[in-house]
User: Fold this.
Amino acid sequence: MEDQPLPICVAALYRFAPMANLPELRGHLLEQCQAQGIKGTLLIAPEGINGTIAGSDAGVAAVIKALRGLPGCAELDIKYSRTPDLPFQRMKVRIKREIVTMGQPHIDPLETGHYVTPQDWNALIADPDLVARMADGRAERSRCNSCNKCVAEMDRGGVRCVLA
Assistant:
């Protein structure tokens, strides 16, 4: 017997992009997903979109095409996987204050730090002198005030203070 591909396509996705008119967008996305038989959850917020959806290949592709058509979402970050059964019971589109909860209203996820190459990443996160270099201007400053608890953020390309 030949190996059959798993029938259900799952797409985990996110994009930081300015979103406006969230109630109208919520209705539009819910209609798109329901029309394609898609199940899962999409979170929308002024800062962007985040979620996981599942369904047929054609249905997921149609919803992804609609999402990429939203302003700022052409470069939507998507990870695909497959499963034998539909992992979700229903489709939800929720409006949230943030798509990634940070609880820090002064942090704007649309403002990124400087790019760190993969080769420099391990050195950055292992540098015990990072806070001191930031304090005296030898490194790009984040929102850290020398707490020694700065963390490098891979998804945002910069450094932030965990106490900020």
Notes: The mean pLDDT is 81.
